[in-house]
Amino acid sequence: MQELAVDLCVIGGGAAGLSATSLAAQLGARVVLVERADMGGECLNSGCVPSKALLAAAKAAHAMRSGARFGIAPVEPAVDFAAVRAHVRQVIDTIAPHDSVERFEGLGARVIRAEARFTGPRMIVAGEQRIRARRVVIAAGSGPATPKIPGLDTVRFFTNETIFGNETLPEHLLVVGGGPIGIEMAQAHRRLGSRVTVLDSGRVLPRDDPELAGRLLRLLAGEGVVFREHVEIVAASGCASGVALTVREHGRTSVIEGSHLLIAAGRKPRLASLDLGKAGVRFSDGGIVVDRKLRTSATGVFAIGDVVAGAPRFTHIAGYHAGIAVQNALLFPFAKTSYEALPWVTYCDPELAQVGASEADARRTHGDDVRVLTVEMTANDRAQTELATAGAVKLVAHRSGRVLGVSILDAHAGELAHVWGLAIRSGTTLKNIARSIAPYPTRSEANKAAAAEFYRPKLFSDLSRRMVRLFSHLA
Ligand SMILES: Cc1cc2nc3c(=O)[nH]c(=O)nc-3n(C[C@H](O)[C@H](O)[C@H](O)COP(=O)(O)OP(=O)(O)OC[C@H]3O[C@@H](n4cnc5c(N)ncnc54)[C@H](O)[C@@H]3O)c2cc1C
Which of 37, 232, 367, 377 would suit a FRET pair with 46, their CA atoms being 20 to 30 Å apart? Predict the structure, then answer.
């Protein structure tokens, strides 16, 4: 076995590990990246990229059905699901070189394609290589969690790791789990022609603003997605049409049959192969325990991305963590995580975005100092031109004018969210957003309008009116 001494060993070549490797290599560190499966991890191969590519195909199909409002005769699209699957594969393949071994070796990193496990503090074995590292970053990610449903092991089901390889359009897709992954897949399959039923033990999209999430669900229901919230799945079994779920709902038991089943019921960290005990790294079922500097319980060992206990599981957080861990591992160890301006988006059509605190969280922290201002997309000319006015920008602000959080439902909510993250992060007050000039006609005007709404009572107060009357006498 060969021994390699490095400044930094990164375990996992997903979004988190690749970002850490790229930063460390460009800083001139001797860095080795160990990846046991496909480079790019979940995001590229079975997460963000294929899901958005499938949604894009679904949107094209939907546009063909819904042109009548614009005077375009609607037609039912002929969906070639194998070709849709090929489109998804093509998008992955096009992006893959950016995450490839060649690119990272070009940046100066050494890439080992093997499974990594600790043999001691900062000692790792990967294939035929023994690695002695001054610092280690664990970026092993998460995989789909399987709920405890009696009989589930006897039926065929998809997870995000397998559904994008499916080449046959499901006749009736049952989706267990109403989080962002389940909801995106539900809309994508419905628009491509499947019947879809979403089942959740609680509320669908529970972390999002209840009012805007409710509007989104009503739109999806209008497209034909069936939602069964607060159901307990008591059994899974095979049936003539594919799979049957026995559910208990409001005290009644019934059976729902589908042709295919997707389990999208949460994530679990990938810890089993790492032998973390040998490194002295503390972990729980939720992931690796870290402090705000992303340090684990073992000196010189950091954890980032989906593998971290309690951290938000998004690609942008993986990249954010990577910057903090690399700074703390290789430079001045002062960087700390803060999720105050965290954005997330469910990429349905329309998109549902959240940045920073929800109204409920803000009220818990700031009580009566919270102001909530909602601008409907019916008031936005661009949304009117596109007949896409069901959404809104809901701004949650402190009475001082500080932005606490924003929820947005709109076709471009993800893009609209960014400026609010910047405002929260930089402490920019609503005044700056209200005074900015947004190009006309854009959805961004709704952001500006929400900020302006905050100042409306002051601007159009009795005092202002009296002053205007006074000035009119002076002229
Ligand atoms: C369907 C779906 C859609 C999503 N959409 C979005 C989205 O739109 N936007 C967004 O921000 N996020 C999205 N996410 C979440 C996002 O994909 C993850 O947050 C992100 O991929 C996490 O990156 P990571 O590097 O921490 O983990 P991963 O991407 O899981 O990478 C971890 C890597 O570590 C490797 N590994 C594990 N153990 C070992 C070992 N012992 N030795 C060597 N290698 C090892 C794995 O093979 C894997 O490649 C989505 C997720 C899913 C499932």
Answer: 232
Which class for 28: exposed (0-12), middle (13-18), buried (19 or more C-beta within 10 A)?
exposed
Q: Report the SS3 class of residue 414.
A: helix
Q: What is the pLDDT of residues 131-181, one digit of tens each?
A: 999 999 999 999 999 999 999 999 999 999 999 999 899 999 999 999 999
Question: Which residue has 């208990």 as its token pair?
Answer: 248
Pick the residue whose CA is nearest to atom 20 on ligand 1: 315
Ligand 1 proximity of 55 Cβ (cutoff 6 Å): no
Ligand 1 lined by 36 (C-beta under 6 Å):
yes
The pTM of this model reads: 0.97
Cα 402–Cα 407–Cα 413 angle in degrees, nearest 5:
115
Geometric angle at alpha carbon 463, from 461 and 464, rounded to 5°: 70
β partners of residue 295: 302
Q: How do residues 395-444 score in pLDDT, each as one tens digit?
A: 999 999 999 999 999 999 999 999 999 999 999 999 999 999 999 999 99
Please give the distance, rounded to the nearest whole angstrom, from the Cα atom of residue 252 to the centre of ligand 1: 38
Ligand 1 in reach of 112 Cβ (< 6 A): no
> Which amino acid is it at 428?
T
User: Taking the CB of residue 106, how many other CB atoms lie within 10 A of it?
Assistant: 10
Q: How many other CB atoms are found less than 10 A from the CB of residue 346?
A: 24
> Which amino acid residue places its CA nearest to atom 30 of ligand 1?
141
42 lines ligand 1 (CB under 6 A): yes
- Phi first, then psi, for residue 158 (nearest 5°) are -95, 155
Query: Which ligand 1 atom is nearest residue 115's CA?
Result: 42
Quote the CA–CA distance of 205 and 197 in Å, as a whole number: 15
Q: Is the CB of 10 under 6 A from ligand 1?
A: no
Per-residue pLDDT, averaged over 293-316, amounts to 98
Residue 51 Cα, ligand 1 centroid: separation in angstroms? 13
Ligand 1 contact, 115 CB (< 6 A): yes
Answer yes or no: are the C-beta atoms of 146 and 29 closer than 8 Å.
no
Q: What is the pLDDT of residues 63-88, one digit of tens each?
A: 999 999 999 999 999 999 999 999 99
What residues contact residue 272 under an 8 Å CB cut-off, 6+ apart?
none
For residue 32 and ligand 1, the question of a CB distance below 6 A is answered with: no
Helix (H) or strand (E) holding 289: none
The pLDDT value recorded for residue 1 is 81
pLDDT at 310: 96
